[in-house]
Amino acid sequence: MYFNKNNATSLALFCKVVDNYGDIGICWRLARQLQQEHQIAVTLWVDDLQSFQRICPDVVVGVEEQQLAGVTVRHWRNQDGVFSAADVADIVIEFFAVDIPPGYIAAMAECNPHPVWFNLEGLSAEEWVEGCHTLPSPHPRLPLTKHFFFPGFTSKTGGLLRESALAEERRQFQSDPAAMAAFLAQFGVTPAEMASLKVSLFCYPHAPVAALFDAWQDGGTAITCLVPEGVAVEAIQAFLGMEAKAGAVRTSGALTVRVLPFVAQPDYDRLLWACDLNFVRGEDSWVRAQWAERPFIWHIYPQDKNLHHVKLKAFLQRYAAGIESLIALSLRWNDASTADIDEQAGWPALWSPFKEDMPEIARRSAEWQRQMLANGDLASNLLKFADALRSEEAKN
Ligand code: TRH
């Protein structure tokens, strides 16, 4: 073992917030886990402390360097900077192919041994991922090689981010109705709402929220939709008839919509665990929904030329095969067409079979979780691969 559990290993993780919360959400989760479970001395370089503060309220905006949960957080302001070999970590990770400062790369080349260097990529269920995972990319000028590391859903990928205590924490919470009720009560959820079908909603603004709300309103099942502040604001305000601020609530027909505060990351997990159905988006909340062992619908981050539809279908093929109602609702939620579904079907016709199938979807979600557990977790897999690379370098 080169990268021991004794704080002797250092790791630098470089994160640029492109938009929203997924970039920092994933990096923060990985940084914490590497420190807490593997005792790695982690420095997280991040360019946007404001976004970071939304998912982690302990972040102080305007501070250049701070300690958070054992992780050193550095405000990454620009590409400048003079670095020496002593500044360079044993393991260097660039998230989503960000360009790390040229001065830092030059200092990496001065190190002996050279640091292990990764480009940590985004999550996709597409088959090509297996072929690209762990591929080397030699630097054009310097004696450095970067390796691609892909999260994924099979044993030939890096697996998914998952803290070692997560499953047990979730099981305990979900087997304690009083704890779930107390958690939701702090946001104003009433006992009647507790007894209804509870749905959390996190999606991009273009999701067909209004059409879904119409179907829920006119349906026969009492539904409480819990929406963190700032999500699908236009549609939520249209339903509420008032500003979508935390605490705002309105019932119409069978549907109650309640706005929650945008909660800290660990509470977002509890929200997913406490709800009967979760609408999630992007990457990190999507993975958390998979660990929540509840039915979920994924709103995928949109890409040019509808590339995201290919990714969505690749995931549904692995996850939802044979569950037509889940496939149909997921495709329609993402405005993706396919020959397999009736494109004219209205939302009540999509919702009703999906609701009927929810017990089966919940069983599938438990089975999926067992399948994913067998792939190990991303942080441990990444360290194992770093170790293999270092031992290879030591031999040469
Ligand atoms: O916010 P996202 O849409 O983020 C991203 C980015 O757009 C990114 O550029 C893109 O590459 C990626 O999606 C695919 O969705 P995501 O990934 O689910 O991240 C949301 C984070 O916010 C996640 O860590 C959970 C957290 N969160 C909270 O902490 N509290 C909340 O109340 C909510 C709703 C989310």
CATH architecture of the largest domain: 3-Layer(aba) Sandwich
How far apart the termini lie comes to: 17 Å
Radius of gyration: 22 Å
CATH-defined superfamily of the largest domain: Glycogen Phosphorylase B
Number of individual domains: 2
CATH topology of the largest domain: Rossmann fold
What's the number of helices? Answer: 15
Strand content is: 15-25%
Which small compounds were modeled alongside the protein? 2'-deoxy-thymidine-beta-L-rhamnose
Describe what you observe in this structure.
The protein is α/β, with parallel strands linked by helices and 396 residues long. The chain is globular, with a radius of gyration of 22 Å. The two termini are 17 Å apart. Strand 13, helix 11 and strand 14 form a beta-alpha-beta unit. The chain folds into two domains: 173 residues; 208 residues, 3-Layer(aba) Sandwich (Rossmann fold). The strands form two sheets. It has an eight-stranded mixed sheet with strand order 3-4-2-1-5-6-8-7, with helices on one face. 2'-deoxy-thymidine-beta-L-rhamnose binds next to helix 1, helix 10 and helix 11.
